Amino acid sequence: MKVVLTGGGSGGHITPVLAVARELKRQRPDTQIAYIGQTGDPFSSVVAKDPMIDHFYTVRAGKFRRYHGEGWKQLLDLPTIFKNTRDAFYVSIGIWQARRLMRELKPDIIFSRGGFVSVPVCLGGRLAGVRYITHDSDPVPSLANRIIAHWAVKHAVALPKDIYPYPANKTVTTGVPVSDKFVPVTPDLKKKYRRAIKLSESAQMLFIIGGGQGSRLINQAIADILPNLLGEFPKLYVVQVAGEANLGEMTTLYEEHLSEAEQGRVKLLGFIDDVYRYSGAADIIVCRAGATNLAEFALQGKACVVVPGTFLTGGHQIKNAEYMAKKGAAIVQDESELAADSNRLAKQLSRLLSDSARQRQLAAHLADFAKPHATREIANLIFKQAA
């Protein structure tokens, strides 16, 4: 069987693609898997190196720039108009590139995780007579998925299917596919993770991750509050994934504002591929409200403070965060309020670090959202639709 996987633009698209690839190979080792990414996407290189991917290709794709909260003003912005017009041509080129690839590869099915590249790949696939499945991890479908939805044979979704605008008979609730390294964290497993990262079992650990490329806003807020937080909690250790582009700036900030002893309690990282180990070792996680990260931390059962990106298209992280907050599954910190006063985050973290019962409560409520068999269900759906 030949399967094409596509999706890209962020780590939240790439990691589920790789999880599905591993499950497909686990169930049927002779499955041939090709990945089609977006030309120029830095995350594509992660997929290209993965041993589960037999063939790697890229096509042109484009982004329709819409910024949450900007309204009609963005329609008059000349740079935005230029980029959207240029990218419309890229999408047209990508459709024909994908169509040619489909005729060469002759896949049985396409699975699209989403992102801009899914539009040319799936439309090119349709022109070549190849069926495809879409996946939505957020409560509101992305523009890309709305564009390609009509011709999909199935829609896999993360949340109850009745909240999505797809035909009920074509929609299946599966959850978000994540790596099989994300599992419920028992006390013994937490100790194992801590030994692996050389952290004492008695320490308090805060893990900060602002997405695959990091978040300058979250980085700056943590830098502002860390001196006081480390002073208030003598056993506190911090692991911060700042993003490769922000690593130098953050290193300089901590060298300037933290004592040598305090610097020894902070570990700065650029990009990591073993998030599960650090998140599993942590007591509290500060993260964005991306669906993939939330699904991963739900499987582990972790207490999270989420900072949804407010400027992202469609406000999907805001909706994710609101959904979690309503269920008591996460503490939500508004991005604009954090930018105005980082002490808001300091107060939340201080209260949470002092209240282990509250940590357990948040962790348990987030764990209620865990879908441990999501990846397997998606693999089964792919095989069934390809047959």
Describe the protein in words.
There is one protein chain. The chain is of the alpha/beta class. It folds into 2 domains: 2-177 and 372-386, 3-Layer(aba) Sandwich (Rossmann fold); 187-367, Glycogen Phosphorylase B (Rossmann fold). Helix content is 46%, strand content 15%. It has 16 helices and 13 strands. The strands form 2 sheets. It has a 7-stranded parallel beta sheet, sandwiched between helices. It has a 6-stranded parallel beta sheet with strand order 10-9-8-11-12-13, with helices on both faces. The longest helix is centred in the N-terminal third of the chain and has 28 residues, at 78-105.
Query: What are the low-pLDDT stretches, counting only 5+ consecutive residues below 50?
Result: none
Counting DSSP E segments of at least 2 residues, the number of strands comes to: 13
Rounded to the nearest angstrom, the distance between the terminal CA atoms is: 9 Å
The dominant shape is globular
Number of domains: 2
Number of discrete helical segments: 16
Structural class: alpha/beta
Portion in strands: 15-25%
Element-by-element helix/strand order: EHEHEHEHEHEEHEHEHHEHEHEHEHHHH
The Rg value, from CA coordinates, equals 21 Å
CATH superfamily of the largest domain: Glycogen Phosphorylase B
Mean pLDDT over the full residue set: 91
CATH top level of the largest domain?
Answer: Alpha Beta
Spatially, the strands of the biggest sheet line up as 3-2-1-4-5-6-7
Largest sheet: 7 strands, parallel
Determine the fraction of residues in helical runs and give it as a percent range: 40-55%
CATH topology assignment of the largest domain: Rossmann fold
Architecture of the largest domain in CATH?
A: 3-Layer(aba) Sandwich
